């Protein structure tokens, strides 16, 4: 502060004998030097003319409080910690708040060099660079505290003569804010879980375990975007169910969702299945041509199930469509633009397949913008009872029966590993409802692969009063369902084990309405 900041201006003309220069710095004055003045001192300009007057009492007071002792007592009233170092880094001042916040007695560090007392302290950087540092939040791990430091260089005539750091203990505020954020997150998760549950009941989807609701809420979030989604999960865990949910909650819900099971299409037909062809494009082609899945899904969603089974050559073609937004229809000169959202699903470790060069890395990245994992039934055991009752009701209705679930079967269900997941449970309940001739089914009615069957005389009890044709179909369906469970829903293995051609196999699935064909 300068003298002119506190002087009372003088309007008359008078040249004094002695006065204080109006540019004098108050801090540089000494109280004893002011004793030569009376009650007032004259203030003079550079030519020695009186330009004002100052009250000596006030001036002496201000000179006094600028001594370090007074400053000390003021700084000591601060709740903020203050530390000051000189040009060499020696600590010449710190207040009690500093000592309290950082839990260091003053005597331990006063007079020491900051480089030894606190190596790596930010104030050293400020001393060396002259650039101030302000931080909203700095964590002190050893004390589990947060501070918000403001560190300034002290300069005189452009030279750095020291640095001062002022910081507040913000631990309570930061922790409170963190609590609030956490509470919001919990509320948000809760809200999402409620939304997920509402969505499930709307779509007749079963599941209330936290793991499954998490998957459902992720699906609902991603549904609102246009991002490609890769759904991962074991066979029969419900990947297609999640894909449908994404489609039904997206802006494309009024357009079709077309499902392609990449494993079910023979390699030589896959291109025409995807892109379609013009009439007469090749021998055996339909006269009117055929639309491919991309065209059918235009405006909507294309769900590529078992993407890991897509032939490598086809992967390149798919990638091109994703990059250009156009398809090359067989037999057509001009490319056809398509607007399709892609959802892919796999039960194979695609990352490993990429490493083994069995799956294109560029396509993998393109598909895997968002990844959703569907938990296996083992990972959500609390849903097992729900599913069991849900399917029991469904198949009792379908087969006009009123079979109940015995407690021993239910407890077996909870302990079983369900390698084929929801589909296996569904097939198992359907099988049991078909086979059961009693009011409630016990373990003996479960598909044989799940348990060691009790030895029985061949054919005993096989006749149940129905025609041979009906009995054969019932048995055939049960065998397919059982094999589906045994091979965890892997259709290729089931086909092989049952000695069926791909065509016959899919025809039988259709005929018996076995729910695993992605059509
Ligand atoms: N949450 C659920 N609620 C009701 N049914 C479900 C649920 N999840 C799966 N399912 C049923 O389980 C069966 C298998 O589901 P889905 O076809 O979606 O599995 P997936 O993982 O796509 O199978 P795959 O690996 O064979 O392609 C279907 O009949 C489906 O309706």
UniProtKB/TrEMBL annotation:
SMART domains per record: AAA (SM00382), PAS (SM00091)
PAS domain ranges (all copies): 67-113
CDD domains registered for this protein in UniProt: AAA (cd00009), PAS (cd00130)
Gene3D superfamilies: 1.10.8.60, Homeodomain-like (1.10.10.60), P-loop containing nucleotide triphosphate hydrolases (3.40.50.300), PAS domain (3.30.450.20)
Name under which the protein is recorded: PAS domain-containing protein
Single annotated GO MF: ATP binding
Start and end residues of each Sigma-54 factor interaction domain: 205-434
Organism of origin: Aminipila luticellarii
Keywords associated with the record: ATP-binding, DNA-binding, Nucleotide-binding, Transcription, Transcription regulation
Nucleotide-binding in keyword set: yes
BP terms from Gene Ontology: regulation of DNA-templated transcription
Keyword hit for ATP-binding: yes
SUPFAM superfamilies: Homeodomain-like, P-loop containing nucleoside triphosphate hydrolases, PYP-like sensor domain (PAS domain)
InterPro entries assigned: AAA+_ATPase, AAA_lid_NorR, Homeodomain-like_sf, HTH_Fis, P-loop_NTPase, PAS, PAS-like_dom_sf, PAS_fold
